[in-house]
Amino acid sequence: MTIRDALLRARRRPRHFGAGSPTVYRGDGYEFVELRAYVPGDDVRRIDWASTARSGELQTRVVLEDVTLTLAAILDVSPSMGVGRKRPLLAAAREALTDWFGAATAEDRCIRIAGGSITPAALQRGSRRAVALRDDAGAFDLTKTLRTAYAALPRGTALLAISDWYDLDASVDRELAGLGARFDCTALIARDPWYEQLPLAGIVRLRGAEGGTLRGYIGARERAAYLAAVRAREASLLRRFEAANWRTGLLREADGAASLAAAFGLRS
Amino acid sequence: MTIDHPLRLGLGVVALIVFGVVYALLQRRATSHDLAYSNIAFFEHAAKPRTWIPRALQALWLVAFAALVLGVGGPHLRLMLPAHDGSVFICIDTSGSMAATDVFPTRAEASKAAARAFVSESPSGTKIGIISFAGAAGVVVPLSADHQAVLSGLDEIPPPNGATAIGDALALAARMLPRNGHRVVVLITDGVNNTGADPMQAAQRLGTQHIPVYTVGIGTENGGLIPGTNEEATIDEDALRDYAQASGGAYARVENATELRDALSTLGRTTSLQPKRIDASLQFAIAGAVGMVLAFLAGLGLGRYP
Q: Which of B34, B48, B305 lies closest to A201 in CB terms?
């Protein structure tokens, strides 16, 4: 199964909170899913005569509805995504983004929301141009970008948002819920590069990716407190997105594509 | 504090500034090896790094270097140090008014108790003598470094009786004190001079010999009747203050036995102190060097991330 399949299977799932598992929308199309026993009311054109002949009972071919997907993506390109242990988190995010738009067929529509506005120029068809879209046009404003997505994207859009979500204050929860109700949303949360262990000891000086410095002593106590806070923050983010009916996943620095696949329960 | 070599100190200050600039540059250079983090505010909230430790280390470097620079400048400190060759005469009033009971049990007994406190608080080596005075002044205990003997001698002070010859007591103390060394007179009285030599002249003479007189006026504000008479015991506070000022000493008024004992205890600790000019170059240099070594070792121990 591909990311696109997963998106199709998830389409038309109930949108109210606490809904059950996603259902496959079966309809008139060409993508074969399974054979099953004929049920009165089935389109006779979908009866598979070969299987019927073999089994001796009427068999219906179940196919997925042919649909055109709209794939949209928000990529946090703020300097905070430029940090990492071996490479910037942004590199992993770009891998995920490439796979996301790579899942689109020629008929699907790809939209990359860059900066705080969506313009006709930002509407791209095909993954390559969408990923390559300049994303350093001005400072990245996460809240503004989410609001732009809500206002501009067509209902039912599959929206992927990749960020470290440092700017996600509590006031944005309503917007998240609105997006979750309107679109098929997926949040990739960039995992802190030092989630496992903070490689600092003694007197250190930190440089903030978005400005500022910090000079202080890091001992065992500080390392333990840091790890606890990082894990608590990640868990809190996951809870908030899930409460807003978003699909969630963790963006790992090592492999962005695998991170995206894992968010859909797939193996890359 | 005085400086013997201002030029050296100036050079040292310049060196200190250069050191500070180089240190800051090295710190800035070291920054490139530190961690770049996504969100400093979150890190600060999460890890709560102890920011006072690097500040304390910087302060230690600064203080150590400053001490070294001061040491090079040849600092001399003027300190109040115990004078082991000090001499103190305690002049205790034994006039009739000292029998008044407004200070428990009597002014005379409270004075003796306070004198004991003074002797106990004085550093060993300080010579102490006791003079009692009423109509005339006499030495009860000559100057002695044997404080136990002085304490015993306090019991020899005659009971209160007679007039008040403050001037005689001060003059006697002046005669009995050695010509040199740190010398002090402590005068405990409740009355007005009414016989003998002029106390003001005696105090001024002591002042010219650099012998301060610490006067302690004893008695409550309302005073008390002298037992067996209708006379009221009063204090001429202005006169006592003048004696003290004329000699370079100080005046204190006490109204009860506790205040008196406290005042004498304090005097016991302080009158034997004398100002001395100490060359502190070596001490500053050693403190600076030790501080720098400590700062270096601490920096090494608190080193950077592996």
A: B305
